[in-house]
Design a protein that fits this description.
nucleotide-binding; 16 helices; 585 residues; five-stranded mixed β-sheet; HATPase_dom; alpha+beta; kinase
């Protein structure tokens, strides 16, 4: 059960950690994508931002409404916007200069767009249908390179030192824009340049020229080129994108690399934070219970059999209602085992203390029981050995009978001691013999009842209605009968009647021997300890024969021969002791 709970718990934690990691990575990728899109829009709004501007727009009753963030980017790029209806009229405009028309004829717009007619702005068109209406968005940006290129071709001169000489106004404008100019020979090699940056090349192939002209966002410059057939020279004017100019002033790191570095750093820190928090959670959920269990086991080793408690005196694994706390619930099986171990160790310690106390009492009692007959024997021996007295033959025989009686009692005590320690050592019964219990028990009960101290007519035997056979070691069974009979007659008032019977055990299919008396009975505590060694369930001031081992020996002998013994009693109601054995095969 605990194994399944631990597997489920750790699988759940691993799943949560993987899901959180994937979410962090996904969020990082989304953020990188958005930032890259913003960078690309800032660099080349005409090819990327214009599409997003139209897609994110909403059609209202007042016309089309654009995303404010994208409109702000238009302004940062020094551009302007116009929204045209199907007739070429301007419905909305943003940051539009005063020299831009407010309506366009069909041919007029196309001539401006293709460059067939002079126009001070580069135009970019995006046409899209929204809610059944066809909208045209015009994005314009100041044409800085065209006039500069015309001036350079018309008035520029390549000096011998490789410097391109331009009119002063053109040079000032290029410097203000951060741009540069180049003139190339027929093979594409540079003849002269003005304000050329360190990352610009001085040898162009057809492919390199085409790429740098078409994909200005990749190289960071908007490049315009004009070839003069008469001289075979190619003139180049390049102006940096607005985003490149701003970043070159604030950071040496490319914007894409900066975004990637930030994203990777944040993702790594987030993953570290997730695993750190997961480790703390595991330490609380699993480390605390384990430390508590180790502390509990350490307390058991020191003889403290109660669970360690918190400041409020409540066991650490339990809540105020007595149930398991959430982080201890997965270890409930182990905690139950430790709890049972604590109870067992505490009970064993109490039993050891009780047994030690009983053993001391028993040793004191058995010492007294041995000294009493020994004192009588010694007394009569001294009397017989005294030369001053002459004893008659009858007196000598009387003394001898008393000495024999006392020595027999001592022999019984010694035999009981020997028997109980042999049983404790695990001695096995000798090979048994098949007995017919009706006849055998009748003789054994008569022998047990013939003891002089029991009186007469106090023991009766009730045989079974049919022959009962069982295979047992007869001397041991006889010892059981003697002990149970003596216990019933010695520890009950005079006149107590004992009935011994044998019958089939209806519940288990074996044989039951019953010893039932009508004596004073026993209380619950005495009945529970009736078969304990050294235990005498009587007043300590009472004088009674016995060793305190008879009932324990009877139980041990019965169990050694494969049987069991039970007691049913209550004060004033007598006592019934039953022996159960399986029938002979």
């Amino acid at each position: 059960m605990m194994k399944r709970r631990l597997i489920l718990r750790f699988t759940l934690q691993l799943t949560i950690a993987v899901v959180l990691s994937l979410l962090i990575v996904a969020a990082g990728i989304i953020w990188i994508t958005q930032r890259y899109a913003e960078i690309n829009i800032s660099i080349d709004f005409s090819s990327i931002g214009l599409e997003r501007l139209v897609e994110s727009s909403k059609l209202t009753k007042d016309g089309i409404k654009f995303d404010p963030k994208l409109l702000e980017q238009v302004k940062l790029n020094n551009g302007w916007l116009q929204s045209l209806d199907e007739d070429g009229n301007v419905e909305q405009s943003f940051n539009t200069p005063s020299d831009v028309p407010l309506n366009y004829a069909p041919g007029e717009m196309i001539s401006y767009w293709t460059g067939e007619r002079p126009f001070p702005y580069h135009l970019y068109l995006w046409i899209q249908e929204k809610q059944g209406r066809l909208f045209t968005v015009v994005y314009g940006i100041k044409d800085e390179t065209g006039p500069l290129l015309e001036t350079a071709v018309a008035q520029g001169q390549a000096a011998a030192d490789g410097r391109l000489q331009l009119p002063k106004t053109a040079e000032e404008r290029l410097l203000a824009l951060g741009g540069y100019a180049q003139v190339l020979n027929y093979t594409g090699a540079e003849l002269a340049s003005f304000n050329k940056p360190a990352d610009a090349i001085d040898q162009y192939s057809v492919q390199e020229m085409a790429l740098r002209t078409m994909y200005n966002a990749r190289y960071g410059y908007r490049m315009h080129v004009q070839y003069v057939p008469e001289t075979g020279m190619t003139w180049i004017v390049a102006v940096p994108n607005a985003m490149k100019t701003a970043q070159s002033e604030t950071s040496w790191l490319p914007p894409e690399a900066k975004v990637l570095l930030i994203a990777i750093s944040v993702m790594l820190l987030s993953l570290l934070l997730v695993f750190f928090l997961l480790s703390l959670w595991n330490a609380r959920r699993f480390g605390s219970p384990m430390l508590h269990m180790l502390a509990w086991l350490d307390s058991l080793g020191k003889g403290i059999y109660t669970e360690p408690v918190d400041r409020k005196g409540i066991p650490r694994s339990r809540d105020q209602q007595g149930g398991w706390r959430s982080r201890y619930r997965v270890f409930s099986d182990v905690l139950h085992s430790i709890e049972r171990l604590s109870v067992t160790l505490l009970r064993d310690r109490e039993l050891r203390e009780q047994n030690r106390s009983l053993r001391e009492e028993w040793i004191s009692g058995i010492t007294h029981d041995l000294k009493t007959p020994l004192s009588s024997i010694q007394g009569y021996a001294h009397m017989l050995s005294e030369e001053r007295y002459e004893w008659s033959a009858d007196e000598v025989r009387q003394f001898s009978r008393t000495m024999l009686e006392k020595s027999g009692h001592m022999d019984t005590l010694i035999n009981d001691l020997a028997m109980t320690y042999r049983i404790s050592a695990g001695i096995q019964p000798p090979e048994g013999e098949v007995l017919e219990l009706n006849e055998w028990l009748r003789k054994s009960v008569e022998q047990a009842a013939s003891h002089p101290s029991f009186g007469e007519q106090r023991v009766s035997f009730v045989p079974s209605g049919k022959e009962m056979y069982i295979k047992l070691h007869a001397p041991w069974l006889n010892r059981i009968v003697m002990n149970l009979t003596a216990n019933a007659l010695l520890h009950n008032p005079p006149g107590t009647q004992l009935t011994v019977s044998v019958a089939e055990d209806d519940h288990n299919g074996g044989i039951a021997i019953t010893f039932a008396d009508d004596g004073k009975g026993m209380d619950e505590q005495t009945a529970a300890r009736l078969f304990d060694r050294y235990y005498r369930g009587i007043d300590s001031m009472a004088m009674v024969e016995g060793t305190g081992l008879g009932m324990a020996i009877a139980k041990d002998l019965a169990e050694a021969m494969g049987g069991r013994i039970t007691v049913d009693t209550s004060p004033g109601q007598g006592t019934v002791i039953r022996l159960y054995w399986p029938a002979a095969g």
